[in-house]
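Need residues for this backbone.
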């Protein structure tokens, strides 16, 4: 399986999905896809094979979300802390990323037909140049697809995200684009990597771990969180629907979310926020156009 979003439900599963769909469906669901390595160890297979199974599950889950009417999905694919793993595993993960983003660019018609917009959120400067180029090209190639957004956090931590947001705000004050009194939660929100996205309604973490691992620490203040013991490659439609059903029972959180007010900046801050966002889009375009004799994508 590559980036093909095929229908894979039997009639019982499809009926269950339709029943869940009669309730309130989350708009944005985030997944901490944990358990690929334990899955591999459990089956005595290579770690990279466990990550491959995890990728297949991500594509399968994206299809379920699309069928349910969810319009945005975020997956925690690679933490900055994962660079502390063995050189062999990190190199395997980088090679895996190369393979999957090359495949994405060759299968654009499938993603376009499915309406999948791919965004990668994180610190691309930490990646090998060719990997960041493939990512940038994938983002640009799918940016106009509008049925479902797939955010891939890679490489990402909340600490890094907040650090960069604070640097952007500090730069704005230094150059007199904004004033110290302009600093508030709304400005910080608009300087995050996730500025294009609403906060998740539901966060699902697999593998039995009940921690957040420095993921979306700012964004999940009003998010319904569902923990499951299932390892990510073993994640099933039934576990997915159980998580959505749990979300539907989180009435207090949904009420709080619905009461959130849209962000309104003064003209000075709006101009600076627009400038930051434009700089980020230009950075992605520049990365996508990198050319070197050692770095040929095709």
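Answer:
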């Amino acid at each position: 399986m590559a980036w093909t979003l095929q229908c894979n439900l039997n009639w019982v599963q499809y009926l269950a999905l339709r029943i869940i769909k009669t309730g309130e469906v989350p708009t944005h669901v985030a997944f901490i896809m944990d358990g690929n390595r334990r899955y591999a160890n459990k089956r005595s297979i290579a770690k990279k094979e466990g990550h491959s199974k995890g990728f297949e599950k991500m594509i399968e889950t994206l299809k379920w979300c699309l069928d349910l009417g969810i319009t945005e999905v975020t997956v925690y694919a690679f933490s900055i802390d994962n660079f502390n793993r063995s050189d062999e595993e990190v190199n395997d993960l980088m090679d895996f990323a190369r393979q999957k983003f090359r495949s994405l660019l060759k299968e654009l018609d499938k993603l376009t037909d499915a309406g999948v917009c791919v965004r990668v959120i994180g610190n691309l400067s930490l990646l090998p140049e060719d990997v960041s180029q493939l990512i940038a090209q994938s983002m640009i190639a799918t940016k106009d697809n509008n049925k479902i957004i797939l955010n891939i956090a890679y490489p990402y931590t909340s600490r890094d995200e907040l650090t960069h947001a604070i640097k952007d705000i500090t730069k704005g004050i230094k150059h007199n684009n904004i004033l110290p009194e302009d600093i508030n939660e709304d400005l910080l929100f608009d300087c995050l990597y996730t500025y294009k996205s609403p906060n998740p309604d539901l966060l699902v973490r697999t593998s039995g771990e009940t921690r957040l691992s420095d993921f979306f620490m700012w964004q999940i203040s009003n998010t319904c969180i569902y923990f499951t013991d299932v390892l990510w490659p073993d994640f099933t439609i039934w576990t997915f629907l159980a998580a959505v059903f749990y979300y539907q029972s989180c009435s207090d959180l949904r009420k709080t979310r619905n009461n959130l007010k849209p962000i309104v900046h003064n003209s000075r801050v709006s101009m600076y926020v627009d400038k930051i966002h434009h700089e980020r889009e230009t950075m992605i375009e520049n990365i996508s156009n990198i050319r070197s004799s050692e770095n040929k994508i095709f």
